[in-house]
Specification:
Blueprint (H helix, E strand, L loop, with lengths): L16 H19 L2 H10 L4 H11 L2 H12 L4 H12 L1 H13 L6 H5 L4 H8 L4 H28 L1 H4 L2 H4 L4 H10 L6 H17 L7 H6 L2 H11 L22 E2 L5 E2 L4
Length: about 270
């Protein structure tokens, strides 16, 4: 006796239970690992002269680690608030490009998009774009964003509150935590000739202008590395790969295209 056929009207689940567990595990791993570095931000921010309320407000409202570290580092080095904010704003613009990609992948309801936009950062983009299928991407994005947001803000508060007991952040090396995390995210992306040229030129520009420009300005100058390197590559006749994508969250791999339920194909990156 054979089992009755499954009606065609019942769609197969996009993510099986085992797959959902793996997505949640990976997302929580990223959220917890990165969220703990909020402690370093809290200490660094307090050491730069920001109050507890100002420090916590940055994590609650800005919530993009590299920009937060850039802001307080520039202020701590004696830079003006304008240059510090400009450097932080420049670093934060990358999230707008992540948002363009994620909007097509996640296709969230219009009502929740403003809330989800707060979680569009390197780590949530990396986890979401690594998944195969929209449901898995939504799950990875949500779990990563929720765990990271909660833990980052809690550890920011703890770091800022305990900064006076720790003393100078430089003595503990906590001032290097932010740049170290950001470099760890960027390093796997520097694989091709163009990427290596951009990285090398950015470092050179920052080192040249660091002694002569106010704090916070060298990072803006180093942004010129990308258009300069790309222009030089075009003059040499180099063409970037058509399907190569850079990764926000610490590794750059070329993932196969997947077709979602609407039939749209998209290639993934992490």
């Amino acid at each position: 006796m054979t089992a009755p056929p499954i009606p065609a009207s019942l769609p197969a689940p996009d993510v099986p239970d085992a797959g959902r567990a793996a997505v949640v595990r990976d997302a929580l791993g990223v959220g917890i690992a990165v969220g703990l570095s909020g402690f370093a931000f809290g200490v660094t921010s307090a050491g730069a002269g920001l109050s507890l309320v100002q420090t916590c407000a940055l994590s609650l409202l800005v919530f993009t680690g590299a920009s937060q570290f850039a802001l307080v580092s520039a202020l701590g080095a004696g830079g003006s608030p304008f240059t510090a904010a400009a450097g932080a704003f420049f670093l934060g613009t990358r999230n707008a490009f992540y948002g363009l990609r994620l909007s097509q992948l996640l296709k969230l309801p219009r009502a929740v998009r403003p809330l989800a936009a707060q979680w569009v950062i390197d780590e949530t983009s990396a986890v979401a774009l690594a998944q195969r299928g929209r449901d898995a991407a939504r799950l990875g994005f949500t779990v990563t964003g929720a765990s990271l947001y909660v833990l980052w803000n809690l550890t920011t508060f703890a770091g800022a509150l305990g900064a006076s007991a720790l003393g100078d952040p430089n003595a503990w090396g906590l001032d290097a935590a932010g740049p170290a995390v950001f470099l760890a995210l960027l390093a796997p992306m520097v694989k091709g000739r163009t990427e290596r040229a951009v990285a090398a030129l950015a470092v050179l520009l920052a080192l040249v202008f660091l002694p002569v420009l106010p704090a916070g300005v060298p990072v803006l100058v180093s942004a010129l590395a990308a258009p300069l390197a790309l222009a030089a590559g075009r003059r040499r006749g180099e063409q970037p790969p058509a399907d190569a994508h850079d990764a926000p969250g610490g590794s750059a791999v070329q993932a196969p295209a997947s077709v979602h339920e609407e039939g749209t194909a998209h290639d993934q990156r992490i």
